[in-house]
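User: What would this chain look like folded?
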Amino acid sequence: MASVGVRELKAKASQIIERSARGEPFVVTRRGRAVSVLLPFDVELEDLVLSEAREFVRMRERARREDRAGRTVALDELERKVARPRAGVISRRAR
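Assistant: Here's the prediction, encoded as structure tokens.
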């Protein structure tokens, strides 16, 4: 992976971004220390945002742990649970 200093990145931003868009990753350094990575953007923006959202990451990890432990629910059972209104819960439409 190529490395580029902040000063060089500022001076050659267009060329470096073009190279990155074609698939070349860069490590961005400041005073010789890696501070960032410049990667081609080939994922959906929503996926990128969700992958960094703390609450989503916690929920995903919890679901993975439950799956590994065998605590899963069949799809038809989940659909019944979601479709059935819970006692004492007033829907937004009814308010």
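The chain has a mean pLDDT of 85. If you want, I can go into more detail on any region.
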